[in-house]
Each structure stands twice: as structure tokens, then as C-alpha cells.
Amino acid sequence: MQLYGTSKITENGELSIGGCPVSQLTETYGTPLYVYDEDFIREQMRAYKRPFERAHLPHRIAYACKAFCTIGMCQLADSEGLWLDIVSEGELYTAIRAGIHPSHMCMNGNNKSDHELRYAVEVGVGLIVVDNFYEIDLLASILHEQNRSMDILLRVAPGVEAHTHEFISTGQQDSKFGFDLKSGQVQQAVKQVKEHKELQLVGLHSHIGSQIFDVEGFRLAAHRLAEQYAWLLQNYELHLHVLNLGGGLGVRYTEEDTPTPIETLTEELIAVTKEAFLTHGMDLPLLMLEPGRSIVAQAGTTLYTVGSRKEIPHVRTYVAVDGGMTDNPRLALYGAKYEAALAMRMHEQPTESIAIAGKCCESGDMLIWDAPLPQSHPGDLLAITCTGAYNYSMASHYNRIPNPAAILVKDGTARTIVKRETVEDLCRFDVRLE
Ligand SMILES: Cc1ncc(COP(=O)(O)O)c(C=O)c1O
Ligand SMILES: N[C@@H](CCCC[NH3+])C(=O)O
């Protein structure tokens, strides 16, 4: 199993994260437990900024908090000077509760409700990424009512096929997101925006997908967008000074994944975007990025306790843990692959290949199909790495399983960022029939 960030193996073969031996963490917080490595998260955020700072380029890095959205996580992003990319009332509310200034937020979403847009306008969200024709008029009318104006970007579907799972590919022409570039919807949208003095169009936005390993898709998107910037300048005398290329940088879940490191990819992104704009004799606009997964995925490890075992001769051995698809639905949804280790016996060699199952009443409730591990016993601690993104945020209560706690570890100290749910919490909204 590959270790990330501050994760280490102690002399007696125990996994430690952020200077905290995992047995101490689980003794205090129980299992399943999401453990987040604070230094590593901060380092990922800084890696995005360094290339811009080195080149003295204006930039905005907005953490796409959908990857892991809690008050503490929003505070971390803010403390590193990042904006937040939010997509719903809930994310906006969380960010506000975290004390983030709304002017440092960018709001995405393909079906923002009247209520959500009103909320964003009232608090003064810095930038709204308008996704469709309906939203242009809706947002304009809300702003008009309140006698306000707002900076917006237009979300563009640039017709780029990102090489990733089809469920997380978003830049292709056949997508629910954004204005279709190929059929001229972007120019049509700009025309419609120009009819509303409340909407200040400052740039375009594209997000080609998630878990992307190289710059090629971004290069194509940058070229297609630069062409639009040039066209809009020529035909409408519209000088757009912001370009948002979205998020999407991939991470290593297993050895099959070979992502470009954040700093290198960011340098490449700057270079390809510069080149694209130069082709049209234009300067690089203020570049905005919205990374989610690459900030938090590898900084997260989930700790479980091993329970039952089922050996099917000549077929497979299942070992079940005290969590599963409720805290990590990514195998069930995308066929995602992970690595695991027995967290107290990190020095031991694997002796068998097992299937790690969850505890839900569902055959698809699996975490890993073939994990090479030493023989495990009930009560052993099992660690699955790279579970920091889209795990907690997509957790469910299936089978009325409470969500685990999440903690942040650093320099030998642990802090709770999300409390463990209780079964009482699960009944909180139920109404007893009288
Ligand atoms: C508009 C937008 N921005 C940013 C992100 C973050 O993507 P990722 O977590 O892959 O960096 C997403 C999710 O794919 C998105 O839809
Ligand atoms: N939920 C997806 C990522 C979606 C990206 C958001 N647009 C995943 O777990 O990989």
C-alpha cells in the first residue's frame, strides 16, 4: 500500500498519520473513522498556487468543496487563501457558517433554484457560473428586484471528451452542463446576457471532468475557449478578463493511476492557456481553477474494524468491515479501486487475496474486490487509503448506518471536524404516527 503525506509506519509496524498512531485514534474515536492529514491538505493547496506565484500571475484557486464539505474544511481552504466553489444552498450555508466571506465564493450548478440564487445574491457571492438560458433570466430578475448587479461566468460545454469514467466526464457535447459551444449557444447566451445590465459577464468557465491525468483535454478546452474570447472581443467588443478551467486533476488510488503532480499540471495548464490566447493575439486572462479531489483525496484514510469472514472454496474469501458503501460508495458507483492494509501489521507480507465487503444488505456493497493482505482476524484494524474525496460527501444512511466521524491530524494531535452520528441522530427527522 502506498503511503501519502505524513503517513508512516512505526517501528512496531503500526500505521501512523499526522504523527498519530492509528490505534490511539480508533481508541478515542472508534471505527469507521475518516482520518484527514492536515499538512498534506495544506501542501496540495499550496502546490496549486506556487506556479502562479512564481510567474507573478493573477489567479484564483477555488476549492471545490463538494469533494469534502465541512465547516472545518472550508476554514482550512480559506486559511490557505483559496476561494470556495459551492454548488448548493447547503454548501453555501456551510461556507458561511465557516466564516468565509461570500465574495470569495464561486457558485456552480446546472439547476440553481430561485431560492439558492436569491441566497447567493443576498449574501453577495463573488461569482456565479451561469449554466443555462433559464438561469440567465432568473438571476437577472432577482438582481433587478434587489437593484444589484453581479459578476458572472458562462459555463461552456467545450465538446472535449476527457479520458475518465463516463459518469464523471462533463465537458463532452452530450452533457447536462453548460452552453453547447459547437451549436453556437455560447454566443447566443452572451447576447441574452447583454440584455441585462445586472449581469456583468467577466469570463467563461469549462470543467471537462474529474480524475484526469494529463493536460491534453485542458489544452483543447483552452484553445476552444480562447477562440470564443477572441470572437467576443471582435464582434461584441467584449473584453472577458477571467477564465475558469474548472477542476478535475486526478489522483493515485492504486498503481493503475498515474496522475501528473499538481504543481507540474498547473504549470502545464498555465502554459497551454497562454499559448491558446497568444494564438489569438490575446493576453492570458486571470486563470481560475476549481480543484476538489486532488486537494483532499490522498489526505484521507478510512479506518475500519474487521469482522466476519466467509471463505468460498475455489471462489473467493470475503472479509467484512464495520462500514462499506455507506461511507464509501465509489466502488458501487464507478467501480473505483482502492488499496488496503492491516493498520497494526504494516510490516507483514500479504498471504492471501481477499474481497473487502461492507455490512449493508446489498451484494454491491464492496470496498475492494482483491486486496492482498496478511491473514486478518476479527478486531483487526484495516486502513483504506485515498478516501478523502467524495466519500464523506457522498455517504448515505442506507440500512440506518450512522455516518462515521472525521478527524484532522497534525503533529501528533487529532481534532474532530465531524462528529460521529448516533442512531438517535438518524431518527431526528422521523415523525411518530399518533
Ligand atoms: C464545476 C466543477 N468544478 C470543479 C469540480 C471539482 O472536480 P475535481 O474534484 O475532479 O477536482 C467539479 C467536479 O467534477 C465540477 O463539476
Ligand atoms: N463523485 C465523483 C466525482 C464527481 C465530480 C463532481 N463533478 C467521484 O466520486 O469520483
TrEMBL record:
Record bears the keyword Ion transport: no
Orn/DAP/Arg decarboxylase 2 C-terminal domain boundaries: 34-388
Domain Orn/DAP/Arg decarboxylase 2 N-terminal: 41-297
Modified residues (N6-(pyridoxal phosphate)lysine): 66
Cofactor: pyridoxal 5'-phosphate
Known catalytic reactions: meso-2,6-diaminopimelate + H(+) = L-lysine + CO2
Family designation: Belongs to the Orn/Lys/Arg decarboxylase class-II family. LysA subfamily.
Subunit structure of this chain's protein: Homodimer.
UniProt-listed PANTHER family: DIAMINOPIMELATE DECARBOXYLASE, GROUP IV DECARBOXYLASE
Name of the protein described by the UniProt record: Diaminopimelate decarboxylase
Species annotation: Sulfoacidibacillus ferrooxidans
Gene: lysA
